[in-house]
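Form 7-S
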Amino acid sequence: MKPQQLLDRATSSRPEQADAVSETILDAALRQFELFGISRSTMEDIARRADLSRVTVYRRFAGKDRLVEAVILRELGNFLRELSELVIPLENPEQKLLDGFLYTLASVRSHALLHRLLESEPEVLLPYLTTEGAPFIATARDFLAGHLAHELDDTRPSEELLISAELVVRLLVSFLLTPQAPVDLDDPTAARHFAERYLRPLLVGNEARR
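Output:
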């Protein structure tokens, strides 16, 4: 599935559409993938962890690829919903963007499945963040640039917004792939200071700071 299609499906999905059995399967699949990775997990493993029959699992998800896709969609949808719940009540547009960055940074650095894949199956995830990462970065960049233009009523040229957004996205990817940094970004206070000092100029632009 292409990154834009993934984002579109995650943002359009409704949590109430999933029935309890499907949620049980997705919970079991997520935990199985976190513990053992995707390639080492089978539909039988997930059925056992969910305490359901294989037939029930296959009725909900025709195969492992469909189940993996459903887990990713649910994780992305949950992230986007939680992000929206965090920033929508904020009145200051700059604060929305900074808090959104901090939430995203904390999420990617603490996400158990992401780190399991980076540790045990880098060949599954790394291409989407490196050599084949252009579509993913472009989707995230366009998404952020749109928010910059909307939230800040930004008058910067679209090219400048895209560059600013791309730098932020690439920074997030870098902190995911190489967590070590001179600043302890797992410390909320240090991370906020970092964002205020170094990210704010990228997000709001020089003109907005005058």
